[in-house]
Amino acid sequence: MERRLERDLVAWQQRTTGRSPLVLFGARQVGKTHLLRQFGQRYRNVAYVNFEATAAARSFFDGDLDPRRLLGLLEAETRQAITPGETLVILDEVQACPVALTAMKYFREQAPQYHIACAGSLLGVSVQRDRASFPVGNVTSMTLHPLDFEEYLWARDEARLATAIREAFAASEPLPQGLHDRALDYYRTYLVTGGMPAAVVRTVETGSLQTVGEVQEQILNDYVADMVKYATTTEAVRIRSAFASLPAQLAKDNRKFQYKVVRRGGTATIFGPAIDWLCSAGLVLKCSRVNQATVPLPAQVDLASFKLYMGDIGLLTHMSAMPQSAVLAASLVDHTFLGALAENYVAQALAANGHTPRYWTSEGKAEVDFILQLDSDIVGVEVKAGHRTQSKSLGVLANRYRVAYSIRFSAKNFGAAGGIRPVPLYAAFCV
Predict the structure, then answer these.
(1) Which among 144, 160, 169, 193 is least surrounded, fewest beta carbons within 10 Å?
(2) What is the layout of strands, in order, in the sheet containing 405-410?
């Protein structure tokens, strides 16, 4: 399964100076271990350690963190010679041994010639909890997201279609109708499957969506198990409640997160830490409101107003119990909840490309789904699930601020419409 992040891993491998140990972030089951093992084929050998499975390996880091001592112990544990530039050392589930992250500082300072890659399912949570152990400034951080739609097309043996979409986006020219329809069909399938590798593999291997829900249910169960394992009992209850409320939050016309939807009388004091946990674990995406659509956008954020999207669109579809037939049927593209799915899908695509999702409202008169800062330009993004694209919000935004242009995602083909750029939903990965 091809992942775009492997290109960044290759660039990291090929650095001749300034290489730091790698720390790979990402939610559970997004494919971190598989990606690193696949990347390890570029080396002569791989020394792999799983800290959750091997208690002895955790004990290596109880004493002196001298890289030479640690390398000797890792060689003995993995039965692999560790040679600079020829061996990839993978320290997996590193959240079970936080001091191993601390050790990366010494590897960077004293043994930069060794290629060390750390990964873990709850690294974001671990870093927040053990701030002193994270070697800020001494590691190269990367984040692996669920497969985006382009990677999904690659997995479906549709690389040529993905290329055609990129070319049409660059030229702002419509795809041939046959390709457009085929891409829309794959988009709707992706809303059901999502980008979790196990779900995609099940779909590809069986050629069916009938059992993909079983895979997604197991992933959600694993997430709940993590909440219990890596939080106190009280925290776990609140985390589970906030997480379970996501479909209801997004089903509202106003998708702003409301604590009262989680529980009557809910407040930021009660559920704020739970939301932080979900964000740090990579299970949800936080989209904050900006007071003004001006540069720099981070300075305009209203911390009290935000939306929460699911980290994977397939998991949201499954959690919401939305019938697959309703998602897949082209005749039902204007179904109310499909608007929430389309918006979540775009948020996921933007996050995978390194954008921080933010939105803008105007005294209840207009709302723009996403606001992006591309260098010094402000770009508005509106999402429509079907072919109905009439809306005044982008016009209100353009009249009030200096917007370079706006993007309107919908089921329509590529085109041009003055200051608004029509882009089909399936091309969100191009932004």
Answers:
(1) 160
(2) 370-374, 377-383, 405-410, 420-424
**Cross-strand pairs, 423:** 409
Q: What is the pLDDT of residues 184-235, one digit of tens each?
A: 999 999 999 999 999 999 999 999 999 999 999 999 999 999 999 999 999 9
Task: Match 């085109």 to its residue by tokens.
Answer: 415
In this structure, are strands 366-368 and 358-362 parallel, antiparallel, or unpaired? antiparallel
CA-wise closest residue to 118 among 155, 83, 92: 92
CB neighbours of 156 closer than 8 A, spacing ≥ 6?
186, 204
The per-residue pLDDT of the chain, averaged, comes to 95
Closest-CA residue to 33 (of 104, 95, 80, 92): 92
3-state secondary structure of 333: coil
The pLDDT score that the predictor gives to residue 260 is 97
Q: Do 167 and 411 meet the contact criterion of CB atoms below 8 Å apart?
A: no
Report angle CA 88, 90, 91 to the nearest 5 degrees.
Answer: 150
Record the tokens describing residue 180, joined without a space: 């457009």
What is the token pair recorded at 335? 């179904």
End-to-end CA distance of the chain, in Å? Answer: 23
In angstroms, the CA 314 to CA 130 distance is: 32
Alpha-carbon span 346 to 343, nearest angstrom: 5
d(CA 323, CA 5): 32
Q: What is the pTM of this model?
A: 0.95
3-state secondary structure 156-179: CCCHHHHHHHHHHHHHCCCCCHHH
Distance CA 43, CA 46 (A): 7
What is the per-residue pLDDT across 58-69, written as a single tens digit (0 to 9) for each? Answer: 999 998 999 999
Q: Which amino acid is at 351?
A: A
Percentage of the chain surpassing pLDDT 90?
A: 89
Letter for the amino acid at 2?
A: E
Q: Which residues contact 27 (CB under 8 A, 6 or more apart)?
A: 121, 146, 281, 282, 283, 311, 312
> What letter represents residue 225's amino acid?
A
Residue 349 to residues 200, 299, 316, 367: CA-CA distances in angstroms?
16, 23, 14, 20
Domains present along the chain, CATH in parentheses: 5-143 (3.40.50.300), 149-430 (no CATH)
Question: Whose CA is closest to 118, among 149, 97, 87?
Answer: 97
Count CB-CB contacts under 10 A for residue 420: 20
pLDDT at 334 over 60: no
